Every structure is written in structure tokens, then in C-alpha cells.
Amino acid sequence: MSKIEEKLFQDRYRVDAGRPHIRIKDAGLCRDCRNQQCTVCCPAGCYSREAGGQVALTTDGCLECGTCRIICDEHRNVEWEWPRGGFGILFKFG
Amino acid sequence: MAETFDVIVVGAGMAGNAAAYTLAKGGLKVLQIERGETPGSKNVQGAILYADAIERIIPDFREDAPLERHLIEQRVWVMDDASYMGTHYRSEDFNKPPYNRYTIIRAHFDQWFNKKAREAGVLTICETTVTELLQEGGRVVGVRTDRKGAEIRAAAVILADGANSRLAVKAGFQPEVRPENVALAVKEIHFLPQETIESRFNIGEEEGVVIEMAGKISAGMMGTGFLYTNKESITLGVGCMLSDFKEQKVTPYELLDRMKAHPSIAPLIAGSEMKEYAAHLIPEGGYNAIPQVYGDGWLISGDAGQFVNGIHREGSNLAITTGMLAAQTLVELKAAGRPFSAVNLAAYKRKLDDSFVMKDLKKYRRLPEIFHHNKHFFTTYPELFSKAAQTLIRVDGVDKKSKEKAIKQSFIASRSLLGLIGDAFKFWRAVE
């Protein structure tokens, strides 16, 4: 397990299977993005840089902080909603 | 749901629970909507509870609120990679009831606070996400949720939906959050036997310590770290401005792991079991980032209104107070038989201006801008102070006068004489 996976393993989630609450609008924009800073800044490591230069997004471990949406302020390429009620991260302690 | 309410409160965090409780106590019919499984399951905070704010709403909160430890000692550490230099303030005066500050665990506290609201008459529905505000002719008349066909109407809506107020942005009440106005904080909770915590921090049962940290733990970014003692756990974390996170290559969790490995912190959490990792945004834009906080049929309180005093690490008390003031405004208008129009709701802004909330935020209005443009407050100075202390403390045959001269030269070499004077002035301007 990677460092971030070890951390997220301690967290409790109810994943809304097949209904991700965050979506990349235009994959092409990400491929051309110079910094792809979402792959650095997401505290759950949901964004990763693929071999072909694309950015892949898996929202299962999302901590619902909003970082990805806000740092993508030049491209506004992140479509971001709250998960449906009751789904997503469920903090035991917060 | 055909039923209508006086007020809908969105969110069951500090602001939402304070608002809902105050409204119900004031005789209004309140619906509170929370997207988490339970109140608190989406909420993240350090967390410190300031007694004063909650006491104004629930004077006897100490009787049954889940509180961890009351704080008797405050440590402020300025750190470089190997050291910290700090001030510790500990007083027996903080050890006499009624206590002033407590550590809390939000998932526990928020359930208690919400229970109080429900006992006062609030109807809380969980596991429901509000997707948008219903507007008619520029007035907010209710909300739409993700439950099937659920439009719910009310005479007013209080937005207490936190740092990412999607509702306010979608409704056009405020612009999207900007990276320079918000910090990303990550934290972990580490469990240890109660006696271990008490011996490591030199405290008795129920007594607590906070450590606030600045310096190289933020890796050159504008940011701070913290460590709080709970009853049987320690929460620690680090937060930096998103605009700074954007410009570098350290992930938030690497930053946290580095902090945990610091030689002054590692022994405090040694042997502990980490049981949760969390991330959250903290509004840090201060006074100048506060949006319009009321309009026809709506009010904003808590993090959604950017009510956080970053330098003093205060947020939950501002959330409770703004939630309470928003609710009091509505209770007073209702009693006077006046509508919840923008003109009448301006009374909320006047209440805010008269309270410590806006007075404090106004006092520090220049601080975010000054720190944004002077990152050396977080990098150069911690190192200079650390080296100076070390030079003075280490006994090595060099005479004291030469040591003082070396320290003075190190400061001038880094910042120049004019730079030092300018920095002192900027720091004073930031906090005056």
C-alpha cells in the first residue's frame, strides 16, 4: 500500500458506486495542463498522472475538501458536486 | 413535502446547530438539512471549543456535552528542521472552572449539539444533500434536495453549509472560492493510553495542552501546524494556503508525515495508533474576503461566510456566534411581524459589525495580504532565530560579544538592515 492508501484505509466511506460526484470536464485540457497540480494537491491522492500524460480521477477515497475544484482556477475543468446524501466520507472523529 | 417552515437551515455543523437551536427556542418552525449520515459525519476541525460562544446559547453545556480536556497550557513553536523555539504559557488560572477552552472531537460534539436543537423543536433530516436554492423573483423561497421531487419551502434559508458553499456560489451570492483565500489542512488522530498522554505533556486528568506551530513545517508555504491533546488521543495536522500548495510539489500527506517525523514531535506521538485521516478547507481570506451575507430570504453564517480568524485559530466560535446572530435576527423580525426581506435582514449585518466577529476580522484585515507577499516570515526568520539561540546557548570558547556580532550579521546578511526594519513594520501593520 502506498502512504496515502495506508491513511485512507483508516477512514470510513459509503461509496456511491457508479456515481462519482466529481468529473473532469475535458480530458484534453488536463493532458495539456502544464502543472497538473491536482495530482500534487489532492489530499486523498485521487488524481494521478497516466503514462500518456492524461490525468486519471478515482473519487472513491475523496475527503470532500474541494481543493481540486479551487486550484483548477485557470481551466475550471473540474465539475464538482457533493455526493448524494449519506454517501461519501463518513468521519468517525472529524 | 407539502409542509412549510419558517426557516430552513442547511448544515448541522457549529453554525447550523447554533442557528437551528436559537430559532427553535425563539418559537420558529425549523427544518435543518444535513448531508451526512449523522450530524458531524462530514465535519472536520482541530478541534478547540471556546466556551464563551456556546455558553451564550446553552449556558449549562458543560453538564452533558462531550468535551475532551480543558486547556491549561498553550505552546507556540517556531520551527526549523531540527529545532523549535517557543513560548509556553501555562496557568493554574486556566485550571479553575468555569474553563475557557476545551478540546473536542467534532463527530461526537456535533451529535450532542444537534440533539439539543432537536430537543428544542428542530426537525433535522440527515442523508439529504441540498442541491440548490429555490428562487422566485430574486427571493429565496426554499431549497431543492436530492430526495425525489423534494422541494421544500420556507420564509427564509440560513446557509451554514461550510467552507465550500456550493449553494451560495450556484445562486450567484458569492464568487467561487479563490486559492489565495483558503487553506487546506490535513490531520490525523492518534490514540494513546490516557496516562501516556498525561505523562508526556505533564498534565493531570482532564487537563490539556495545545501546540501551535509555524516555520519550516509548512515547507516555505504560508501555513501553520497544530497538535491538540484529547482524552485518549492526539490530533495533529498542518495547513497551508491553496495558492501556495499550487506552486510546489509536496503533497499534503507528505507534509503531514514530515511534521510527524520532526524530532520535537515524533516522541509525543510515538507508539500511537492512527485511526483517522481527514482533510478540510479553512477560509483564511479574512475581512476582505467576506461576501454579501444576507439578501431577500437568505442569510449566511459560519465558514460559508468566511468567518474565520486565522491568526488566532478561531473559527468554531465565530460559526456559533454568526449562526446565533442570524437566527436572532429572524426571531426578532418574526416577533415584530416584519418580512424576511433584504432590507430587514440588514439587521444581521449590523449585529455582526457590533460583535467581536467583525471587530476582530477588521483588526487583522491586512494580515493575509502581508503574509502572502512575505513568505520569509515562514522560512528565513525561523532559521535565523534558531541559529541565534543555538549560537548563544552553545558553549564553545567563543566570547559572547563575538557571538552577538555574528548573530547580528546573520540577520543583516539575510534581510539587510532596511529589510529588517521593513519586516518589523509589516508585522506590526498586519496585527495592529
What does this structure look like?
- Chain A: It comes from Azotobacter bryophylli.
- Chain A: This is Ferredoxin-like protein.
- Chain A: Could be a 3Fe-4S cluster-containing protein.
- Chain A: Keywords: Electron transport, Iron, Iron-sulfur, Metal-binding, Nitrogen fixation, Transport.
- The complex is a heterodimer of chains A (94) and B (432).
- Chain A has 94 residues and is an alpha+beta fold.
- Helix content of chain A is 22%, strand content 17%.
- Chain A has helices spanning 3-8, 27-32, 38-41, 67-71, and strands at residues 13-14, 22-24, 47-49, 55-57, 78-80, 88-89.
- A two-stranded antiparallel sheet of chain A has the order 1-6. In chain A, strands 2-5 form a two-stranded antiparallel sheet. Chain A has a two-stranded antiparallel ribbon with strand order 3-4.
- In chain A, strand 3 (47-49) and strand 4 (55-57) form a beta hairpin.
- In chain B, strands 3, 4, 5, 6, 11, 12, 13, 14 and 15 form a nine-stranded mixed β-sheet that branches. In chain B, strands 1, 2, 7, 8, 9, 10, 16 and 17 form an eight-stranded mixed β-sheet that branches.
- The longest helix of chain B is centred in the C-terminal third of the chain and has 20 residues, at 316-335.
- Chain B has three domains: 4-67 and 104-175 and 291-363, FAD/NAD(P)-binding domain; 180-283, D-Amino Acid Oxidase, Chain A, domain 2; 369-431, no CATH class.
- Chain B contains 15 helices and 17 strands.
- Helices cover 35% and strands 26% of the residues of chain B.
- Chain B is α/β, with parallel strands linked by helices.
- Chain B is globular.
- The N and C termini of chain B lie far apart (52 Å).
- Chains A and B meet through helix 1, helix 4 and strand 6 of A and helix 3, strand 11, helix 7 and strand 15 of B.
